[in-house]
Amino acid sequence: MILADFIVQTPKGLYCSYGDFYLDPKQPVQHAVISHAHADHAIAGNAKVYCTKPTSLFITYRYKEEAAGTFLIKKYGQAFEINGVELFFFPAGHMLGSAQVLMCYNGTRYLYTGDYKLQEDPTCEAFEFVQADVLITETTFADPETMHPAAEQEIGKLNTTELNIMLGAYVLGKSQRLISLINRYCIEKRIVVHHSLLPFIRIYEQEGISMGAYELFDKKFLKSSSRPLVYLVPPVVFNSNIKVMNVVKVFATGWKDLQRSNQMQLYVSDHADWNEIIRTISEVKPAEVWTTHGSGIQLRDHYKESLVVKLLD
Known about the structure:
InterPro entries: MBL (IPR050698), Metallo-B-lactamas (IPR001279), RibonucZ/Hydroxyglut_hydro (IPR036866). This protein is 20% helix and 27% strand.
């Protein structure tokens, strides 16, 4: 039997009262089950953090001694229990270490996706379909008009200019994927990275992920490089008022609003689009879908005759 209140939205985040734990809490809690290490899902100060090893490494680097009281690191597919609820992590395909959370209680299976994508990405574990009675899905891009192009198709746009490129991207997950894509599909480009990216890149490499060649940025490269540069920078640098002559500014994102002022549009997203959400629902075969992290209204309308869709946010 599906418990309508098994997961509820609270000021501290998604809460399971039956196991007294939170999924990606927004405030420090006693038991935090963390799907991945992006700052909007993984905060500092939780007493006990259940997560994958890469997620623990990223959180520890970002928050240092305030990262967590204790990390309880779990492998994909490994069963663990919190106050009578059995849990498992499965790959979510969003970034290195990202996990879906399967929660089993009284014979019912509840699957929380966290952030996820189905597109191929060699810098992280591929999304794994898991059947469940309730699918709790992110709905960042749950819009029938949103369909992400193939990343390899988009990255090829960088080959259309001989000018140096300032490429803006989030430091964790997106930047590492872009380095890999450029090395595979823009082989004439020389990749240089902002220093803030290096610690996260090093953790990827420590965990066995090879992204290919890159170098730490040096201003002299702008004058001396024999190959066109792609200078990968975090948003704060990309959005600064620094003016560089003969440089094309590009920001990699799935959000159209963040593309409008750029000199080239690069739609590379690490979230599922509409078709991928629909496919996931088809593969998971849930009796109910609960939505979070975005609007589920259009998904509810789409399934109004065939499936229960409940909005948690």
